[in-house]
Amino acid sequence: MKLGLNQLITPDENGYFGQFGGKIDHPELKKALQEIEDGFHSIQSDENFQKELRELRDNYVGRPSPIYHAKNLSQNGANIYFKREDLNHTGSHKINHCLGEVLLAKKLGKKKVIAETGAGQHGVALATAAALLNLECEIHMGVVDIKKEHPNVSRMRILGAKVVPVSEGAGTLKEAVDSAFSTYLENPQDVMFAIGSVVGPAPYPEMVSYFESIVGHEAKEQFQNQFSGLPNEVVACVGGGSNAMGIFNAFLDDQQVKLVGVEPGGEGIDKPGRHAATITHGKVGLLHGFYCYFIQDEKGEPGAVHSVASGLDYPGVGPQHCYLHDLKRVDYAVADDDECMQAFLTLSRKEGIIPALESSHAIAYALREAKKHDNDYHILVNLSGRGDKDIDYVLEHLELE
384 catalytic, yes or no? Predict the structure, then answer.
């Protein structure tokens, strides 16, 4: 396992990061995922693949995304900066790994990609990449999230994706993952499962982190060039954890930089079933084919979770995050629903930027932390997505003047 300068954390030959992660045991799935893993490792040294991906990032996604100094938020404490992943085509960081996954699927000769989505950002990004590269796309989404995030559902359908409503259980992200995996099992020869975060069995945590690592490498170089040094803190929201791993990776060896992942505190971490603070309150176990911290009920099964942000209400978290937590390299904090909604409004009204509710958890932490410092302190937040998808929900739940 490597934790080297400007390198990703890589798993051992069995897909483990310490005690976390692992490969799936299911015979048919094991074969299919090994094909994806072999293909993934081959493209890392494939000059044609890397050239195509680089050109799409530059000319289609609009990379590099800028770093913005939020001067209005920085008047009474630390300076706050945003890595503007919300400005990417499709409106979030998700396009980074979706383009990579769909390019890989095409290289492997697949005809279709299938995935889960919570807030719909992964679904939109995957549908976009599939349309561009001429593959079929099927997205499984919980009925609760379909209602809540209907603008993204409309986008997916316009882009040509088949959206499959999932009504089992809580009808949210965990059930969408179950449904997508089950459908994928029916035809892994022609279909590639394109998971939406750094979760799941190998090779997904490593692969998604690899494609998202562009965020951290850009951010580190930009911050040094613009501000002649490194930030004191780098902050990102954590559900499954893809945007956080994307920005953290480049700073892992910079011990002077504090890394903070912000989990969803929901209605309070003292209320079982009403939060999704998986590292803060989870236990180690097996979930969706990998070992991680996850919220468990009294039987050790995945417990109920909740967040105002649909993209964060997953009962588990990526194995790299679990490993970094145990190494004490990353701190994990919590922001609750009320703080998140207030941060959403604060950024909107102070800087004219409407953030995703997922990203608003990281913003809430940054606003809280900034008050503890003077303007010699610098906090860089990964603004992982824009909030167009959330505006109807926010208007329904807040009385705005």
Answer: yes
